[in-house]
Design a protein that fits this description.
single chain, 262 residues, alpha+beta, Nuclear Transport Factor 2, Chain: A, 8-stranded mixed β-sheet, 4 helices, elongated
């Protein structure tokens, strides 16, 4: 066996080893990311909302948008959303329980970030603030997230979108009695709990009179996080989104491709 043949075999083995190492890395990442989302739901069940914030990356560009509740940017704002807004809404008898299904996770080629989507069926019980009575219902949502690996070698939520499919009282179907939840509950809260901006993402709850969007899009393989694309991968039909909020100072970087909003 000549030297060239040995070098070729070594090169082949090195490439094969690198491929296998990346596959193992990705599988571990997918498991860890799934565990983060599972913690998110278990915290939800127990009403442990301050603990939610610890699942997010402590960065200034970390964001969260829960339905129409508004857009929160920066870890301190994320903490305000969970340790403030959610706690404010939580009353005795209030209950959330959601499962995570049909998930897809794509880890970037460079291993630094990942994209995640899933469908989340659940049941919730809210307390009527006027009557004090418990009002149970079915709630289905979809999650779309960017994850980032931080210096402590752990995965954290970087950008979170919770997109409502429907909320319907338990004794009515979503077609006849579903709530579209277009009202922002944070609008009646103290100023210190208000979001940094109104909800910026396209929101498409069930409506029996329309065909619904491909929303969120499932993630495709990618090499590294594209700052220009940002979170636009979640929303494939740019022309159908609501207009870009040009009057919101400081939010332009969330949607770098402003032409998509025209």
């Amino acid at each position: 066996m000549n030297a060239t043949s040995i070098e070729q075999k070594l090169e082949f083995m090195e490439k094969r080893l690198a491929k296998q190492e990346k596959e193992i890395y990705d599988l571990n990442a997918i498991k860890e990311i799934g565990d983060v989302m599972a913690k998110y739901e278990y915290f939800h069940v127990a009403g442990m909302f301050p603990e939610h914030a610890e699942l997010f990356a402590k960065r200034d560009d970390t964001t969260a948008q829960v339905g129409t509740w508004g857009y929160y940017k920066g870890w301190e704002s994320i903490r305000r959303l969970y340790a403030g807004v959610h706690v404010e809404l939580m009353k005795p008898g209030h209950y959330f329980e959601h499962a995570l299904t049909t998930s897809m996770t794509v880890v970037a080629g460079d291993g630094k970030t990942a994209k995640y989507v899933c469908i989340s069926p659940g049941h919730e019980t809210k307390i009527n603030t006027q009557t004090g009575k418990a009002e149970p219902g079915w709630c289905w949502v979809k999650y779309a997230c960017d994850f980032i690996k931080m210096p402590d070698n752990r995965w954290y939520i970087w950008h979170l979108f919770v997109l409502l499919t429907f909320w319907a009282y338990y004794d009515k179907s979503w077609a006849e009695g579903g709530e579209h939840r277009t009202v922002n509950p944070t609008s009646k809260m103290p100023l210190e709990l208000q979001p940094d901006a109104p909800s910026l993402a396209f929101h498409d709850p069930y409506d029996p009179k329309k065909i619904h969007e491909f929303l969120p899009a499932f993630p495709l393989p990618y090499e590294t996080y594209d700052e220009k694309e940002g979170v636009n991968w979640v929303f494939p039909h740019a022309s159908r989104r609501k207009p870009y909020p040009r009057d919101l100072e400081g939010t332009e970087n969330l949607w770098p491709n402003k032409n998509a909003w025209k």
